[in-house]
Amino acid sequence: MHREKPELIFFHTGNEHKLDEASQVMSELQIKIRSLKDISSSISVVEPQGENCAQIAHSKIMQVLDSVEDELNGNWLMVEDSGLFIDALGGFPGVYSSYVHSTVGNEGIVKLLEESKDKSARYISSISFWDGERIHSVQGHCKGRISLESRGDSGFGYDPIFIPEAGDDRTFSEMTLLEKTALSHRTMALKMMVEKLNFPSM
Ligand code: ITT
Asked: Ligand 1 in contact with 158 (CB < 6 A)?
């Protein structure tokens, strides 16, 4: 299927870092990312429960579309659900990443892993998007490992303790925005979103 490349995509998220990362990645493709809050301030979404990020992202976009489809004027809309999946903890915190981060935080995760030899983990990003006609889903991931020492000031969430496998020994928080987006799960999902519709101009 061939579609025209969109000039603008509205992103429903309460996380400014996700917006910054998506804007940076998509600017290279001449696509603007704008917060959905810019056109609609009263969207009420009940944070969906689900077994995986893809299910959660899908339920979220259905709810958001229900309340804003008329205001989109044919523009695209995206939502993203993401999380950190740690192998030695059976994928925890996974779909609970946001809650776990705001409760026990990075220190709590480090404590759980202190005795474990296996520090491998991955970030997953699931994007559900509306192209004006239908909903599509894509997923990106980024393999890495957990650092027992928290390092760096940039990024957000688990970035101070996440060392991406494709990088050097630095955590995501020790990298610039450009360095993180060159490797991240979110970038992989965003690029798949663009490729999925196989724009003729790309
Ligand atoms: P929205 O749902 O409003 O988009 P959120 O931050 O609540 O924002 P999620 O529900 O998708 O997002 O939760 C994902 C959590 O996983 C996030 O809050 C972080 O704790 C963690 N996470 C996901 N991607 C991350 C990244 O690139 N860097 C650091 N932590 C990340």
From this structure: yes
CATH number of the domain enclosing 166: 3.90.950.10
Centre of ligand 1 to C-alpha 83, Å, is 6
**Residue 128 Cβ contacting ligand 1 at under 6 Å:** no
Q: 162: phi > 0 → left, psi -120 to 50 → alpha, else beta; which?
A: beta
Does 3 fall in a domain?
A: no
Q: What is the reported pLDDT for 202?
A: 44
2 domain-assigned: no
Number of neighbouring beta carbons within 10 Å of residue 49: 10
Token reading at 175:
């990298």
Position in ligand 1 atom list of the atom nearest CA 142: 27
Residue 87 annotated as catalytic: no
User: At 44, is the pLDDT very low, low, confident or very high (cuts 50, 70, 90)?
Assistant: confident
Both tokens of 84, joined, read 């950190």
Q: Domain range for residue 169?
A: 8-196
What's this model's pTM, rounded to 2 decimal places?
A: 0.94
Q: Which of 20, 38, 70, 81 is catalytic?
A: 81
What is the number of structural domains in the chain?
Answer: 1
The answer to whether the CB of 96 is under 6 A from ligand 1 is no
